[in-house]
Amino acid sequence: MGLLPSIFARKIRTASRRLYRFSTASTIERAEKVSVEKILSLAYNRNQLAGGIIRTGGLPPGRGDTMEFQLKDGMLLGAASAATQIEGGDDNSNWYDWYRRGYVKDDSDPSAAVDHYERWREDLELMKDMGIQCYRMGVEWSRVEPRDGVFDEKAIAHYREEIQALKEAGIPVLLTLHHFNNPLWLEERGGFAQRDNITCYLRFVRKMVESVGDLVSEYITINEPNVYAYNGYLEGAWPPGRKSFLEMSRVMTNMAAAHIEAYGLIRKTRLQMGYKDTRVGVANHLRAFAPKDPKNPLQRFWAERVEELFQGSLTKAMCTGRVVFPIGKHPSIVPGEFCDFHGVNYYTRSTVSGPADGVAENCPVNDLGWEIYPEGIGEVCRKVYGVLKKPIYITENGTCDNRDRFRARYIAEHLRVLCESGLPVERYYHWCFCDNWEWVEGTSARFGLVHVDFETQARTVKDSGAFYKRVIQERGVSEALYEAFCGGEYPKNGEDQG
Ligand code: BGC
Prior knowledge:
Blueprint: H1 9-23, H2 28-33, H3 36-43, E1 69-70, E2 76-80, H4 83-86, H5 94-100, H6 116-130, E3 135-138, H7 141-144, H8 153-168, E4 173-176, H9 184-188, H10 198-212, E5 218-223, H11 225-234, H12 245-272, E6 279-285, E7 288-291, H13 297-320, E8 342-346, E9 349-352, E10 357-358, H14 375-387, E11 392-397, H15 407-419, E12 425-431, E13 450-452, E14 459-461, H16 463-474, E15 476-477, H17 479-485
Parallel strand pairs: 2-3, 2-12, 3-4, 4-5, 5-6, 6-8, 7-9, 8-11, 11-12
Antiparallel strand pairs: 1-15, 9-10, 13-14
Helix pairs in contact: 1-3, 10-12, 11-12, 12-13, 15-16
Bound molecules: beta-D-glucopyranose.
């Protein structure tokens, strides 16, 4: 994900004073004056903070005697992917350009990715064999509309063929229409920072729904608008590399508006085609946030503020049209209900001790240093369900485990929290099906159930993939299954992750 920048302790102290002033600011302009961008760039840094008295990771004591649990009735287990990260063969996007300019850490090429565009039949066979029950996939806007207003009918036919084959295999598709990637022509005219460009996005959305609407009833308008806006417009680590709080706020606002417009458009388009079963949502990147010291009121205050800025306000705007800072006003953002399900992408928890957050000391972490905190998936789901009572789809959950040592355990522990949550969790899409191209991390971070040899593109199901297949078959996890697959130790924060 490459989400969070590095930071220095001295800056944290300075920003602490600034954030105090910011907390009383009521407008974006005033906030800009006190360098909110600096504060936020601190707020999301992943560097370790010294100390940490919060309980870290693992399941609550007293509940952990047995790992046995059953899946909820009707809950489907599937896998997720994003077009840019797997397809290859497209060099017409902002991300290809970012790679070309040298910003991908291991210099791996997104136009290679894992060649899924050519190998999708092989991947489908693997999915069938694993018993995958539903699949979240993306369509690549830069491929479908390589030039402004010019659609590539061959690319659309390709997606139709793939979706049709999935359908015939009994694997319904949840289709993502925007997942971090823009056609270069759109990026050059300002992407989502320009309000006028929303019409381009809607034109693409309409074209896709008209083209595959008979095959697909469920859509994700936008994947993780907060991550897109934060990384690209505040932190500057992702395209287009901007560093402005005002721009980030504008992008978030425009994306909220684009989602609300697309929500109506998709439903209307399918209705005109004779379908009434449409479901539309956003894939929200939701992180658990906790004060480092829960007894410290100031730290609790920071934890709430940072959470609201990063995810809470955007979720409210997109689901219900409520405008809360840093979302600005926009004629399309009006009160209403704009999602048929909550898409939840959950990976980790952030620990907040002031204006900066980090990863608590000695907690379990994955190979990218992200805290492993299974209870967080329940916490974030409860929050979105509190905003609007809609079914929950876990649209992404998974972990970077380059040697597949603890992925099975991670899956079991997160699934268990969901199944015991009492919430209407209808889907779980594991992120991701096969190892893929991980944005600025390139091919150095493996999240897949299926191993990919990036030289030969050969696929091999991992042990965690075999475990997932059994969970699907057995509709749950038994003690024996847990013992057979989930003995892997999580690395500890601060240890050499090798
Ligand atoms: C994104 C994925 C990404 C995953 C792991 C999510 O934020 O939607 O594209 O691969 O995190 O970093």
